[in-house]
Amino acid sequence: xxxxxxxxxxxxxxxxxxxxxxxxxxxxxxxxxxxxxxxxxxxxxxxxxxxxxxxxxxxxxxxxxxxxxxxxxxxxxxxxxxxxxxxxxxxxxxxxxxxxxxxxxxxxxxxxxxxxxxxxxxxxxxxxxxxxxxxxxxxxxxxxxxxxxxxxxxxxxxxxxxxxxxxxxxxxxxxxxxxxxxxxxxxxxxxxxxxxxxxxxxxxxxxxxxxxxxxxxxxxxxxxxxxxxxxxxxxxxxxxxxxxxxxxxxxxxxxxxxxxxxxxxxxxxxxxxxxxxxxxxxxxxxxxxxxxxxxxxxxxxxxxxxxxxxxxxxxxxxxxxxxxxxxxxxxxxxxxxxxxxxxxxxxxxxxx
Length: 352
What we know:
Blueprint: H1 2-21, E1 26-42, E2 45-60, H2 80-108, E3 110-113, E4 117-120, H3 125-129, E5 136-140, E6 143-144, H4 148-156, E7 163-170, E8 173-180, E9 182-187, E10 193-198, E11 201-203, E12 207-210, H5 214-240, H6 246-249, H7 253-266, H8 268-286, H9 294-307, H10 313-351
Helix pairs in contact: 1-2, 1-8, 2-5, 2-8, 2-9, 5-8, 7-8, 7-10
C-alpha cells in the first residue's frame, strides 16, 4: 500500500505547492491518516506523519463555505481560475510522475523477450512450413525484428496476406521460409473482437535487457504515456456504454496491493512500471467530472464563472453527499470484485 500512499502524496503535493504560490494558507499537510506519530509546524502549516500510510491530505484555509471568513489568504477568496489551478495541479503531478517513471524505465533498461521460437502450435502455418523450436526469427518480409512484441505485432498485421516470408537463424545459418497466415478473431485489451494474423508459434522465454539513450527514452516515454491515456479513456467510454465489463476492469486497494506484491517479486522495473500506470490512471480518474473528485470541482468552478457567483451552502452539502456516496459505492464495488478475483475459488468452497 506504500505505492498507493506515494501516489496520493504526490497528488496532494501538487495542490500544496500551487496553493502556497497563490498565497493560500495551507493549514495542514499530512502523510498518512489516523493517529499522528510526528508533527511540526512551519510558516503556518502543520506537517505531520500519521499511523496509517495510505496516502495523505492537504487542508486549505477557508476551503468550505462553513469555514470561510473572507480573508485574502483563504481558498474561497481566490478567483475561480486560481482555484482551478490549485485543483488541477494535483492530477497533473500524477501525470508527470507517470511520465518520469516511463522515462527512467526506458533509460535504465527493461527486460523483453527475444524472437527465439519456443513452441509450435498444431494446425498453423509455422509447423507445416518447417519452422523448428530454437529458430530465431530475424526478419519478416525483409523487415528486421529484434523483439517478440515487434514480431507478434508484425505478424498480426499481416492478417490479409496469404503467407509471410520469415528470415530465421538456425545453427548460425540464415534461412528464408514462407509461412502460411491464418486469420483469427481475438479479444483485444478493451474486450473488442478484432481479426489478427497468426502462424502458431510461442516464445522460448529467452530475455534480454533493452536500453535507450536519454533523448530517445524521453520521446518513447511521451509516446507510452499518451498511448496509455488514450487506452484508458477508450476503456472508460466502453464501460460507460456497457461494452466493457466494469467487474473485470475496476480494481480497488486490495487488488492494487495484490498486483504490487507480484510486481515487487519481479523486481524494481516492474514496480516502476506499476507506479507509472497507476499514477497516470489516478490522474485520469481524478479529472472525471464527478462530485468530490477534482474534475467535479473544476466543473463547479466553470459553472461559478458563468453564473458570476458561488454555489450556496445547501448546494455544496448536497453535491458533497452525492459525491461521497458515489465514491464509497465504487470502493465497495471494487473491493468486492477484488475479493472475487483473488479469492473466488476459496470463497466458493467456503460458502458450499
